[in-house]
Amino acid sequence: MPIQLIILDFDGTLADTRDNIVRTLQASMHQLDLPVADEAACASTIGLKLDDACRHLYPDGPADLPDRFVETYREIFFRNKESLVPAPFPHVLSTLRQLRQRGVVLTIASSRGTGSLHAFIDAMGLRDCISYVLGADSVEHTKPHPEPVLRTLCETGIDAAHTLVVGDMPVDILMGRNAGVQTCGVTYGNATRDQLQAAGADFLIDDFAELGVYGSTQV
Question: Does 9 participate in catalysis according to the annotation?
Answer without folding.
Answer: yes
